[in-house]
Amino acid sequence: MTIREAQAPMESKVRRSKRSWSDVALSVWGVLVFLFLFAPIIVIIVSAFNTGRLLVAWDGFGFDGFVALLEKPAIRDAVWVSIQTGAIAALVATLLGTLAGIAMARHPGKWVFWFIGLLLLVSVTPEIVDAVALLPWLVFLGQDLGIGLFNDGIVRLVVGHSLFSTAVVSYIVRARLVGLDAQLEEASADLYAKPFATFRRVTLPLAMPAVLAGFLLSFTLSLDNTIIAAFVQVSGTTPWPVYVLSALRSGLRPEIASVSTIMLVLTLVALGLVAFVLRRAGDSATQIARTMTGN
Amino acid sequence: MPRFALAIPAWAWLLVFFIAPVAMVVWFSFGYKPGIFGTHANDVLSFDRYLEALSPTFFSTFLNTLWIGLAGTALCLVIGLPVAYWMAVKAPPSRRGLLIALVMVPFWTNFLVRTIGWQVILAPEGWLSSLLQDVGLIAGPIDILYTRTAVLIGVVYNYLPLMILPLYVAFDRVGAPLREASKDLGADRWRTFVRVTLPLARPGLIAGVLLVFIPLMGDYITATVLGGAKGNMVGQLVASQFQAAQNWALGSAMAVMLIVVIMLTVAIGALVVWLVVIPFRSRNRLVLGDGREEAPAAPVAVPADREPQEVGS
């Protein structure tokens, strides 16, 4: 037996025992925390198949909750209101945010500092403050100034849901364009393209992955918005989280878990699309994580 | 055309639907509630609503909120930091995309729904309660729903992804070469972590703490679902003044106070950290060259293209 052969197993043993305590502890902790993170979600998904009368008390397995969704127009309407609001709010936020993001990336100046300050202010203001501020403001616009538009339920929800999303889209689009050289736009201008043509044919396609990701993120943000929605909603156009919030007071039934499960799947599909779009555009997993948490 | 022309629509939108309403709330906070049927009046201006918001009844809620905010942020940091480090450093690179996706799922599950999930778990008649009783860990049904403990569990859960993700990004950026260099220079793993990895990850640490603390202080849903009467937070107080009590003046003053408390706490926290860090500065400078935290962008040779996993798949 050569020395090397004798050493090899020992070496590997030493390495394994050296790796053990801290690394194993870290892995165990990681797994535990992931279990913690998924516990309530699993509970909700399991509850969706509860045939009992109350969400908390397990009775048996069945699809009663999902059938109840089809039978109760109130929940269906709430989901439909959410989807409509989400689509319109996402359109508004994407339009405003894309233009602002392009301006910040391509026409920098002192104003960008102030504008980012405004966006930051929008992002860090507690949602409850936005909510209680929008309520009297929309009443003021709709009733005192008589602008009938602001008495419409969907319009009020869209306004409330678009604020944070506009800031998010602006960040994402700016981040994408700042990372790309402006030479392409300069070349386009040198080749006698009019500013608008350059914008439409060069800048916008460059920003497109960020625009799409921003749209989908805004959609899911709107779909999940509860606090602002609870304050600005008009009876008749209740989005689904607000319906759930009111069900909380009157007693939770399994169909609440069923609708939550369906909306979770919808959200995950949208987010999967975001990841796909960003991935195609060459972002790394880390960059995608940053984009999706809005920083 | 001015340089900011394209930003004008967004600017106008936020001016009309963010700045103006918030300014209106600030204006309301100096007024008063005129009678049973009025919500606000501003013909006499005073700071009385602020004094009212600081009266013992409401002040205890402010203290409670601050306690939950600080304890919740600290717990998120303690729980989230090892996880982020594990994800960025110890987990196999091929699995990192999947792990990030797994952290994102709870983050993107509806806030209200996941909080209701905890209500179900913590319910005295729920499965966790009966399981713990069967095992013999507790004598009676668990009794933490509708207490401050339940709210603390809820906020730690709800904001934990916001701590993990920026920390992960920061640890990921430090990159393996610097850690290996530190080990080659004779530092053990603990020293490497404390003197190299952690100082370089400081931007992520700060981002995580702020991303958790600021929204946590303004939380409304967690306390509503899990807190009941005992685990009250300022968010609920503000909401109830606007909804049930119809006292917009007092509610506005509370909302403004909430923002002031958040900003003050962040400022004081920053000052304390700065003072604590001063003695360590000169030591770290030896390790980091010029001691600045600026992007260690160069040694990032890590993940991206080599990962087969699709985030979110």
What does this entry look like structurally?
The complex is a heterodimer of chains A (295) and B (313). Chain A folds into two domains: 1-47, no CATH class; 65-293, MetI-like (MetI-like fold, Orthogonal Bundle). Chain A is 80% helix and 0% strand. Chain A is built from twelve helices and no strands. Chain A has helices at residues 3-47, 64-71, 73-106, 110-124, 127-144, 153-178, 183-190, 195-224, 227-232, 240-250, 254-280, 285-293. The longest helix of chain A is centred in the N-terminal third of the chain and has 45 residues, at 3-47. In chain B, helix 12 runs antiparallel to helix 13 (248-288). In chain B, 44% of the residues are buried. In chain B, 70% of the residues lie in helices and 0% in strands. Chain B is mostly helical and 313 residues long. Residues 286-313 of chain B have low confidence and may be disordered. The interface between A and B is large, with 94 and 100 residues.
Tell me the CATH architecture of the largest domain in chain A.
Orthogonal Bundle
CATH-assigned fold name of the largest domain in chain A: MetI-like fold
Helix share bin of chain B:
over 70%
- Pick out the low-confidence regions of chain B: 286-313
Domain unit count of chain A:
2
First-residue to last-residue Cα separation of chain A: 59 Å
User: What gross morphology of chain B would you assign?
Assistant: globular
> How large is the count of helical segments of chain A?
12
- What percentage of residues of chain A falls in helices of 4 or more residues? over 70%
How many helices of chain B? The count is 13
H/E topology pattern of chain A:
HHHHHHHHHHHH
β-sheet strand percentage of chain A: under 5%
Classify the oligomer. Answer: heterodimer
Radius of gyration of chain B, taken over Cα atoms and rounded to an integer in Å: 24 Å
Structural class of chain B: mainly alpha
The name of the CATH superfamily of chain B reads: MetI-like
Q: Biggest β-sheet of chain A, characterized?
A: none
